[in-house]
Each structure stands twice: as structure tokens, then as C-alpha cells.
Design goal:
Oligomer: homodimer
Largest sheet of chain A: none
Helix content of chain A: over 70%
Radius of gyration of chain A: 19 Å
Strand content of chain A: under 5%
Largest interface: A-B, 31 and 30 residues
Order of helices and strands of chain A: HHHHHHHHH
CATH architecture of chain A: Orthogonal Bundle
CATH class of chain A: Mainly Alpha
CATH topology of chain A: Tetracycline Repressor, domain 2
Distance between the termini of chain A: 54 Å
Number of domains of chain A: 1
Shape of chain A: globular
Number of strands of chain A: 0
Number of helices of chain A: 9
Structural class of chain A: mainly alpha
Chain lengths: 192, 192
Amino acid sequence: MVTNERPLRSDARRNRAKLLDVAERVFAEKGTSASTEEVARRAGVGIGTVFRHFPTKGDLLEAVFVARLRRLADEADRLAESADPGEAFFTFFAQMVRSAPEKNALSEALAAAGVDVTETASPIKDAFRTSVSTLLERAQRAGAVRADIGFAEVITLLVSASHGAEHSFTAPDVQSRALAVVLDGLRPRTGG
Amino acid sequence: MVTNERPLRSDARRNRAKLLDVAERVFAEKGTSASTEEVARRAGVGIGTVFRHFPTKGDLLEAVFVARLRRLADEADRLAESADPGEAFFTFFAQMVRSAPEKNALSEALAAAGVDVTETASPIKDAFRTSVSTLLERAQRAGAVRADIGFAEVITLLVSASHGAEHSFTAPDVQSRALAVVLDGLRPRTGG
């Protein structure tokens, strides 16, 4: 669990944010072999600073996971305000699929560290669900996305498409065309 | 490697086919915990008969894998002869996705047994590729499937959709609607 009993001073907050940012990149690159030492080194802080914020590697991984989900929810909220709700939805979907390899590396590192994020991530998961649902509903109201699907179908398609994207043996252009098929399938049928 | 130096007599051929059939079901149900003993028991033969045909569990698994791929290629060939090439292609695609959990169980059992099917499965993989490509091209010529994709995109989408189908936490109706999105995306755009 990430303990934050007292409010952090602003420099401590900045340190924490920077550590999360660096840690996300390190875990994405190295997966289960990433170390807290490397995170400290690349963030330019001592290992003691990392452990003050995150007593264990599991705490750090969990905080990265939560921060990532919060950033995605914020991004969905920002896109939901866009003038073109259809474009906004498809942009978000494609971004999620393209960032799948990093997401999967993080999930594997969490699993390897034996961290169960169910409890900590629950509030942000709800926020993510609300944000993505809003983005979807606006795109549907604009007639850009078929009306017969909901959040569950979108997540199933995201997980599926992300699984395809994670296989490095699939050439990027094949991945792009496969993603285009899914995106077109999300649009309403305009005829026959 | 599956050794078949001499032609098998017809009762031996029948026994072998039956063992493969039973083994496929047992591995699909039990995955890595399936045993050669259970295959023998459920096929109603002695364990010696199994070992005469398949000296190791790896040999049996490999033969099941090859037989499955050959059956799918035959099914694609059969469907390619159908009067409605579009319907035939979509039927094949949906069947492949629905049988994904069994396919994945088999792949896991192969991996757990340390079996590399690359060499043995290579000829049947080529046949499978030819059969699916023919099915795809006929559907494309009939105007039922978009023209800008090939075998690689179809397999990427199959693998992706199959990954979604393998998650038992996804409700069947959500899986069906997610699959419908992919199938619709495979159709040519009729407007917009």
C-alpha cells in the first residue's frame, strides 16, 4: 500500500511525480527485470529517497499503475471536451492500443512482485470507467460510433487489439491495418 | 517427432485417429494437467497402445496440434467451395475465435512439455495459410470482405479476437458483440 499520511511538501511532491514518471519508463523498458536502484539512478536521486516515498518495489509499481490509469482517465476527460467526439474516441482507442506493450510490461512486473492492485486501484478504475463511458456516449450521440455497444465491449476490443499489438513479430503496418479494421467496425454501418 | 516409418494398417490408423480425437478433448479440458493415462482410459485402450503410437506425451501433443491444423485447413477448403464466399469466410473466422480457448489450452500444454512444433507443423501451416488465403480472396472478389487486407491482417485479428474470447470473465454476450464489431470492420465500407 502506498502510505501518504501527511500532505507532501511541494518539493517532495515533485520528487514523487518524477520518480513515478521515471519508474513507468524503466518498468516499460525492462519489465520484471527492472530494479528500484535503476529508477533511483535515472531519476538522479539516492535510493533512500525512493524508499522514503515507496517502501517496497511493490509500492512503487502500484503507484505507477494508479498514476498511469489516472493519466488515461484525465486524457479521456480532456478528449471528451473536444469539438469532434468521434475523432476523440478513435484517438483515445488507438492510443490505448499503441501503449499496450508498456501496459503489459507493467502488469507482468506487478504480477511478478505479487502485488494485487484491486483495492488501491478501485477508485481510479471507477473514474476511468466513467471517463471512457462519457467519451463513448458522446461519440455515439454524434453518430460516429455504433449505438449497440457499451463500456464492456470497448474494453474487450481494447484488450483484444492490445494483445495483437504486443506481439513484436507482427509488422507495424499489419498492426495498423488490423487496428483500422476494428476502428471501422466501431463505426455505424452506413448501408447494406 | 511423430515417427510413422511404415504405413499403418487400417485398425492401427483408426486407433491413432481415435487417440488424437480423445487427446484433443482431454488437453482442451485439462490443459497442462492432462495425462497420457487419462487419454488411454477415455479412449478405452491400454497405455501401451498410446505409447506405441506416441512414444512421449510431447509426441502426442504435437500430433494433436498438427491434426487440429489439418482439420481447420480442410474446413477452410470446404467452406471456400460454398456458394456464398462472404458467409463462408465469416463463418470460418467466428469458428476460429470460438474454438480459441481449446487452441490456447493446447498451446500451453505444448509449451509446458517443451515441444517445439516449428519443424513438424511447417507443411501443414503452409497448407493452412493457402486455404485461408483462398477463402479470403474469394470473399474479397465477391465484395463481402474489404480488399485492403491479407492473410497477415486476418491472422492478427484472429489472434486478437481469440485473446478476448479466452477471458472467461468476459460475458458471452459481450464477447459476441465485440466479435460482431470485428466482423463488421472486415466488411467493405458501403458509404460515409
